[in-house]
Amino acid sequence: MEFDMLSHDSIWRAIDALAERHRLSPSGLARRAGLDPTSFNRSKRKSADGRDRWPSTESISKVLDATGATVEQFMALLQPGSGAMFPGRTPGIPLLGFAQAGAGGYFDDGGFPAGQGWDQIDFPVAEENRAGVYALEVQGDSMLPLYRDGDILIVDPSAQVRRGDRVVVKTQAGEVMAKVLARLTPRGIDLLSLNPEHPNRSFEMKDVEWIARILWASQ
């Protein structure tokens, strides 16, 4: 197999494609490989003065070990048009880490993505259902055993929520959590914890900024 000359863009394209194949964000892939979670962030691909930053050969080796990909498969992803290996690709949806979700400026009052600082992830969502759908990346072990560090949750704030649904809730105090909806009334909500080591929670509706349904999660 013949390959074009390696370039900065082709190396990063291959890393992004490998992350996508495993339903991970770039930071999720870095985490799985035992690297700093920010190693593959788009903001790290250029220096402050605009110069290209390249991933180290050690980082690429760790990524191959973590995903089980061969060198030949990685090299194939360097080629233009390698996205054809992922049929049905659609424009990316917004992606944010759970640790950042509690900060102001990322959501509007209805729980829809807003402002700057979002990354992107490819995920097949029908065009008519794309508005407002976004992804949250699990960070840490607080949602074990259901969700692991690096898992991606696809969230739709416009979807109707019912008892038993897995939901993401943001409080007026800025706390963001993923729970199971046990009860929803005009006055308040009861939430069951995904992790038995963490308590169940109850809130009055005046203390809830928004609630959004989890549509899908990588496993």
From TrEMBL:
Start and end residues of each Peptidase S24/S26A/S26B/S26C domain: 94-214
Regions of compositional bias (Basic and acidic residues) in chain numbering: 46-55
Keyword flag Transcription: yes
Single Gene Ontology MF annotation: DNA binding
Keywords recorded for this protein, A-Z: DNA-binding, Transcription, Transcription regulation
Disordered as annotated region, ranges: 29-56
TM regions (residue ranges): none
Protein name: Phage repressor
Species for this entry: Sinorhizobium sojae CCBAU 05684
